[in-house]
Amino acid sequence: AIEELICALQDFDGTVLTVSHNTYFLSQIATRVVELNRDGVQDYKMGFDEYRTLRALDHSEDVTAQLTRLEAAPQEDAETGGKQSYEERKRQRNQQKQLQRELERLEKKSESIEAEIEALDLEMASPGFFRDLPVSKQSAVQSKKAKLEEDLQRTLAEWERIGQQVWAAD
Predict the structure, then answer these.
(1) Domain assignment of residue 152, given as a range
(2) Of 2, 36, 60, 102, which is least surrounded by CB within 10 A?
(3) How far apart are CA 10 and CA 18, in angstroms?
(4) Whether pLDDT at 120 is above 90
(5) pLDDT grade, residue 72 (50/70/90)?
(6) Which of 151, 110, 153 minimizes the C-alpha distance to 22?
(7) pLDDT-based confidence at 141, cuts 50/70/90?
(8) Which ranges of 32-134 does DSSP label H, i.e. alpha helix?
């Protein structure tokens, strides 16, 4: 279903404004990204994959500065005598890996939920949905979609919370 939508949008000559959490979908159709945040509006004349790469660099500060800081940290600890124990470093690495895995799991879950929502949207958009289906089945589909949307919001909120922990640890 998503592939058909992507093909249709790629063949469309006009302009489409899209808001989605589905990164695959956006990477396939976006040729320009407009970011809205508390600092204002930023227009990126690039595809979604390039935008994500740029934002990853911006979000984690300057990569070289971050690497420099990481390389200098053990030396500074050794110089001050407050060297972090091997066990503590190992525990922190394991915790970071666990958070990364949880982020990946939540991202896959949100993509799966989005795909289900899109399938329900397509079902409800079909010509016979409201005409041919009994009201009880229509209500069931609409109720399922509402539940999925709530689940998606909870999943994205959790993804954001864990993401902030990961980025704060960097």
Answers:
(1) 88-170
(2) 36
(3) 13
(4) yes
(5) low
(6) 110
(7) very high
(8) 48-59, 63-80, 86-125, 129-132
pLDDT for position 142: 94
Residue 37 lies in a domain: no
Domain assignment present for residue 21? The answer is no
- Mean pLDDT of the chain, nearest integer: 81
Structure tokens at 56: 């990853």
Q: Where are the beta strands (DSSP E) in 10-166?
A: 33-37, 40-44
Q: Is the pLDDT at 114 greater than 90, yes or no?
A: yes
Q: Decide if 122 is inside a domain.
A: yes
Contact between 154 and 109 under an 8 Å Cβ cutoff? The reply is no
**At residue 16, what is the residue type?**
V
Cα–Cα distance between 159 and 157 in angstroms, integer? 5
The sign one gets for the Cα dihedral 52, 58, 60, 62 is: positive
Specify the residue for token string 């940290």: 73
